[in-house]
């Protein structure tokens, strides 16, 4: 009888633990990959600004590339407009190509790109990719590869404003069709159309990952 009671109590405590885990705030910082240009569609900039405001409202720290141009500058400025926290990470050699954002709450200058990316990945609880160029794509794909190989279990989401990421999604499907992405090696990420939805989706995914490990 005692053993049964102890097992029941243990199960109840585990249930309480899971309940608390799913309700607490699991994401305190998000790394955003995005372009140092604005792109052709004005919706890209609008979405970046909206997302920045949402970061501040949810008290989520923005981890980003440290520049003040394009969508990178838009989202960081939007976070600060609402009193939020930003941490920019920029390699030293890029300072001569763009003005580093000295107004950022925290600015980290690294010796090279590899150190920059490692620092970004280390500081972030989750990742969002906005529209951008080769650099944005490279950062996104490396993050996805690390997740695929089990190096990290941090949620990844694409903000698919104006279907910007559709060609990339088609390429992922093509890789699956050709068996280069095989069962058991799926690339797990979320695709969200509106910035208002993306933080909640990342929170839900993070809680799922936590509960899977209990």
CATH class: Alpha Beta
Characterize the main sheet.
7 strands, parallel
**Kindly, what is the distance between the CA atoms of the first and last residues, rounded to a whole number of angstroms?**
26 Å
As for the CATH topology, it is Rossmann fold
Helix fraction? 40-55%
Query: How many domains in all?
Result: 1
**Strand runs, count:** 7
Protein architecture, described:
The protein has 214 residues and is α/β, with parallel strands linked by helices. Helices cover 50% and strands 14% of the residues. The chain contains 7 helices and 7 strands, in the order αβαβαββαβαβαβα. It has a 7-stranded parallel sheet with strand order 4-3-2-1-5-6-7, with helices on both faces. Helix 1 packs antiparallel against helix 7 and helix 2 runs parallel beside helix 3.
Topology:
Layout: H1 2-23, E1 29-33, H2 42-57, E2 61-64, H3 70-81, E3 86-91, E4 106-110, H4 113-123, E5 126-129, H5 134-148, E6 156-159, H6 166-177, E7 190-192, H7 195-213
Parallel strand pairs: 1-2, 1-5, 2-3, 3-4, 5-6, 6-7
Give a concise summary:
The protein has 214 residues and is α/β, with parallel strands linked by helices.
Observed structural traits:
14% strand; alpha/beta; 50% helix; Rossmann fold; 214 residues
């Amino acid at each position: 009888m005692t053993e049964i009671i102890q097992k029941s109590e243990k199960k109840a405590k585990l249930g309480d633990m899971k309940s608390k885990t799913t309700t607490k705030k699991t994401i305190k910082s998000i790394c955003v990959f995005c372009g140092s240009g604005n792109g052709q569609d004005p919706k890209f900039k609008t979405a970046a600004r909206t997302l920045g405001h949402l970061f501040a409202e949810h008290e989520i720290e923005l981890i980003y590339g440290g520049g003040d141009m394009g969508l990178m500058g838009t989202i960081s400025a939007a976070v600060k407009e609402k009193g939020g926290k930003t941490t920019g990470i920029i390699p030293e050699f890029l300072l001569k190509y763009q003005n580093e954002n000295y107004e950022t709450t925290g600015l980290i200058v690294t010796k090279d790109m590899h150190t920059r990316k490692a620092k970004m990945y280390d500081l972030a609880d989750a990742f969002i990719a906005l529209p951008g160029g080769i650099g944005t794509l490279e950062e996104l794909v490396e993050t996805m590869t690390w997740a695929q190989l089990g190096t990290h279990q941090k949620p990844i989401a694409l903000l698919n404003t104006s279907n910007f990421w559709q060609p990339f999604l088609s390429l992922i499907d093509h890789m699956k069709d050709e068996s280069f992405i095989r069962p058991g090696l799926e690339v797990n990420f979320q695709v969200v159309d509106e910035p208002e939805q993306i933080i909640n989706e990342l929170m839900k995914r993070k809680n799922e990952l936590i509960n899977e490990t209990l």
